[in-house]
Amino acid sequence: MTKKHHEPLLRIRSRNESTLLQKITVLSIAIIAALLVSALFIYFVTRLDPVSVYISMFKGAFGTARRTWITVRDACLLLLISVALAPAFQMRFWNCGAEGQVLIGGLTTAALMIYFGNKVPTVMLLLIMLAVSALAGSLWSFLPAFFKAKYDANETLFTLMMNYVAIQLVEFFVDFWDKKQSHSVGIINMDSQGGWFVPVFGEQYVLNILIVVVATITVYIYMKYSKRGYEGAVVGESLPTARYAGINVGKVIRNNVLLSGALAGIAGFVEVAGISHTISRNTAGGRGFTAIIVCWLAKFNPLSMTFISLFITFLSKGASQIASDYGLNEFASNIITGIILFFILSSEFFNNYKVILGHKQKESD
Question: What is the reported pTM?
Answer without folding.
Answer: 0.89
